[in-house]
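step 3/5: co-fold with D-malate
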Amino acid sequence: MGHNLDSPSIKASFLIRKAMAVIQIKNQKIAYDDAGKGPVLLLIHGFPLNRQMWQPQIIGLSTFARIIAIDLRGHGDSELTEGENTMEIMAEDCFNLLDGLRILQPIILCGLSMGGYICFSAYRKYSDRISGLILTATRAAADSDLAKLNREQAIKTIQEVGPEQIIDSMLPRLLSPNNFEKRKELVDQVRTIMRTIHPQTMINDLKGLKNRPDSTDILASINKPVLIIHGQEDQIVPLEEARQMQKRIPEAELTVIPEAGHLPNLEQPTMFNQAAHRFLEKIKA
Ligand code: MLT
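step 4/5: write tokens
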């Protein structure tokens, strides 16, 4: 029997939220979805989003793998925390969650954008617990000076007038121009997720993003299979950066998703799931 990698409309998929579980880890409540059986694929969301952004993958890929989608600290249904959300702390949260679930065998990590930055930090510390990486819409480089200034400005804006202005300015850049213009339902769904993020969490993330280390130095030493998935029209991380990253990682393949911007898993879920599924099969083989 053929498997169906199609993802139902994201609207319908919001219903799956009931599968949510919460675990207490080091005095902190971390929420996650856990669906399916097989090799473990841990999904790490981007900024300023939460695990709901992975619903098409939970539905489309849980027939082949055990999909765990974490709500990073302060996001979604995870507990609000104080202090900078460094990539290192969030990588530790991911592996503490795996420990809490008694998942000690190597897993596949998949991170989108900020989630990808977290994958690099995780690789530095837990490479023996990682069997493969899916890096999507992400980059290895640290913030430029201009990007750091923009983060500071964004923090000020959130403190002074709240996060709505940040959401409004980010949204058109998250999707491809055409998807932003034509797919109103998708735009609304992404906005809805962004609006759930507590202003303090956004600030904590922005500090962590601004101070994150440059990971270019570790690319050549990644000795696990890597799949890079990138939207052809990503306006936040240009496709060229993904191409450069592929050249530096010894065992990396690149799938470019047409008609997609910075959220290829939501903009083209079927193509994204097909690429991820092929990669899962490759790692299993
Ligand atoms: C994200 O999608 O996680 C952010 O765009 C990352 C960033 O701002 O660098």
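step 5/5: annotate
The CA atoms of residues 39 and 280 lie 8 Å apart.
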